[in-house]
Write a structure and sequence with these properties.
It is built from two helices and five strands, in the order βαββαββ. It is of the alpha+beta class and 142 residues long. It has one domain (2-141). Strands 1-4-5 form a three-stranded antiparallel β-sheet. A two-stranded antiparallel sheet has the order 2-3. Helix 1 (9-54) runs antiparallel to helix 2 (84-112). The radius of gyration is 23 Å and the shape is elongated.
């Protein structure tokens, strides 16, 4: 949590718009990486199926043997030798989280629009922010 002070509702809305645009850019990059990761997973599965057909179901050896290991460093999970499946899973989780944050920011921004009329009267705003999302506003007419 942090407190941020704005000279106007317009300043707060501009910061929210900037954050929405930043998240959209990051989300686009993550979606591209997720598509690439899913394509790698699919290639590996197809190669494994081809090997299984060649060997008559015997010797289903992964095309790229990966044995990942997860270490917990005081709450920070470190995945060593991450597999394509694990990478896709992490990317999917990141995309869902960012999409949720984007939706919240857009709802908050829309909710603030009626307050933009306060800009004419000189209103200072202090926002309680959590992960760059306003959770509480304190308005002060100056």
């Amino acid at each position: 949590m942090e407190l941020k002070t704005y000279k106007s509702v317009g300043d707060l809305i501009k910061e929210l718009d900037d954050e929405v645009n930043r998240i959209k850019t990051v989300l686009g990059e993550y979606l591209r990486r997720l598509d690439e990761s899913r394509a790698r997973v699919e290639k590996i599965k197809k190669a494994q199926e081809a090997i299984a057909k060649l060997t008559g179901g015997r010797g289903q050896v992964p095309v790229k043997p990966t044995t990942s290991q997860t270490i917990d460093l005081m709450g920070l999970k470190v995945i060593i030798n991450v597999s394509p499946d694990e990478e896709a899973e992490v990317l999917e989780e990141s995309v869902r989280t960012l999409q949720d944050k984007l939706n919240v920011l857009q709802r908050v921004r829309k909710a603030l629009e009626p307050l933009s009329t306060l800009d004419e009267g000189g209103t200072a705003i202090t926002a309680v922010m959590s992960d760059n999302i306003p959770t509480r506003l304190m308005l002060k007419v100056v």
